[in-house]
Amino acid sequence: HRHHDAHILCIAVGQSINRIQHTMTMSRSKGALALLLLSSFLSSSTHAATTTLVDSTGSLNKASTLPPTTFKEDGSSGVVALLTSPGTTGSFFPPVTTVIFDGSILKAPGASLEESTGLARGIGAAAAGTLADAVVLGGVTMGDVEGGLAGTRHGRTLAELFSSVLQSKKSGTASTLIVAVEEASSGASSSSSTLDADSIKENIEEIFDGVAALVLGVNDEEELSGYFNVEVALVKSSEDVTKVMDQAAKAAATSTKSSSSVMGSKPFSTAFSEIY
User: Fold this and answer.
1) Alpha-carbon distance 61 to 199, whole Å?
2) For the chain, which terminal residue's Cβ has fewer other Cβ atoms within 10 angstroms, N or C?
């Protein structure tokens, strides 16, 4: 079913609400309920097993296994990779320090500018994004995009991701890449009107071209559009986060990307370990 993941999420959230209604009063604000739903969506849940693929030291969990229901070939709605930013304080997308599979969401920490080993390089995020049907890059701030992503931790994360997909040779099976640009809710300025999505996309394309030249050579003809359809979203509240993740889930469900284009007949865990 095209909306299998959305249906599963609705059931999980509905069960959470039924338990909480006993202690909630009718005066609870809409904002508080939105935060509750967001927490249910982004945090580990008892309704879906969480599998650790890479621990905080960067060591691969070779014993990890994933249920076949995470794969589109078996009737599910695809996988969303959420790449968080360890360096963004107070992000609407809580950072993770390990690579985990939580339901149909593959969460991984993005790169750091201060370190150059293990997960701090962004290699966990790269592996996750390579195998996913849709990718969300979280923790991006207005300052990051105004100064250009290339010199930021997000630029490094994207560079690792692009290098990985180029080496996987999965061109022509483009996934959706959503860049979630965060603005503090207290900043009631006109930042939303100055968010230049086209400029951000051009900046990301420049990063891709630079990586492609290094990986494939200066005469390569690969284009970003062969790998990712880039979207830019402004995030100012928990409700916006829910919208972004819902958009990613729908994109994963309708993606023309076949997992076999990267995985072949290998189990997901095996394919991830080989890319990682």
Assistant:
1) 39
2) N
